[in-house]
Amino acid sequence: MKYLLLGTALSPISLFHTKPKSNLCFNFKFKPSISITNMSLPFSNNNKNNNNQRKLPILLFDVMDTLVRDPFYHDVPAFFGMSMKELIDCKHPTAWIEFEKGLIDEVELARKFFKDGRDFDLEGLKTCMSNGYSYIEGIQGLLLALKQNNYEIHAFTNYPIWYQLIEDKLKLSKYLSWTFCSCINGKRKPNTEFYMEVLSHLEVDPVNCIFVDDRQKNVEAAIEVGIRGVHFKNVNLLREELSLIGIDITTDEEDQ
User: Fold this and answer.
1) Residue ranges of the alpha helices (H) in the chain?
2) Which of 80, 112, 120, 224 lies 20 to 30 Å (CA to CA) from residue 54?
3) Which sequence spans correspond to the domains of the chain?
4) Are 10 and 18 in contact (CB under 8 A)?
5) Which residues contact 143 (CB under 8 A, 6 or more apart)?
């Protein structure tokens, strides 16, 4: 496996993301007119693939800053010896997005990463990123509980082929499948077509999917197509939200 440079849904104002985050705890707010209606719907039995052995609902997780710490905001500027503002001013405005969508490869990314075409230590940057990856506090316990309760879990993430760097370090595939990555599908959240491709691949009604993401706009896009959306703030609130929906997150230890 090649090591890769990681990020999730990235924004025009940052190397990877559009909005800065000061910590791992995000404001958790649903639009009442949307989320309450959406969350109260019963799970449907009208699946395209009517397999009685399949446990519903299916869980879809964003990765960066939802399951895994994103090292960009603190580690990457320090790697380049820049402030965040300096880095944003110097980087190419679309190179990372193109890489996330699989439109360019690693060689091309390195060539156009900076607007002025300057050389940099790409392998060193990947090492910096890898060193910064870690599970969000408490998320492993939640993923384990979901796995023990036989839920089907998929990554649904804006990420380049370098998502393998996270896998190599954290072995996220112990809990979920890296099924829906922008580099494979050629689309990024919140593009509606990406969500529709997910539903087509899974062969389930939208109401039978729950999507968790730290970015409100991605959650709202999911709700627009009928998927149940949960805006991630922290693990404790996520556990509460999943329990309210009816997701079993008890573990063998808790049952004893």
Assistant:
1) 32-40, 75-80, 84-90, 95-100, 106-112, 122-132, 139-148, 163-170, 182-185, 192-202, 216-224, 235-245, 252-255
2) 224
3) 32-68+135-255, 71-132
4) yes
5) 67, 153, 175, 176
Print the SS3 string covering 178-208: EEEEHHHHCCCCCCHHHHHHHHHHHCCCHHH
Per-residue pLDDT of the chain (256 residues; tens, 9 = 90+): 433 333 343 333 333 343 444 333 333 333 333 333 354 455 665 554 445 578 999 999 999 999 999 888 889 899 999 998 999 999 999 998 999 999 999 999 999 999 999 999 999 999 999 999 999 999 999 999 999 999 999 999 999 998 999 999 999 999 999 999 999 999 999 999 999 999 999 999 999 999 999 999 999 999 999 999 999 999 999 999 999 999 999 986 655 4
Second CATH level (architecture) for the domain 32-68+135-255:
3-Layer(aba) Sandwich (3.40)
Amino acid at 34: I
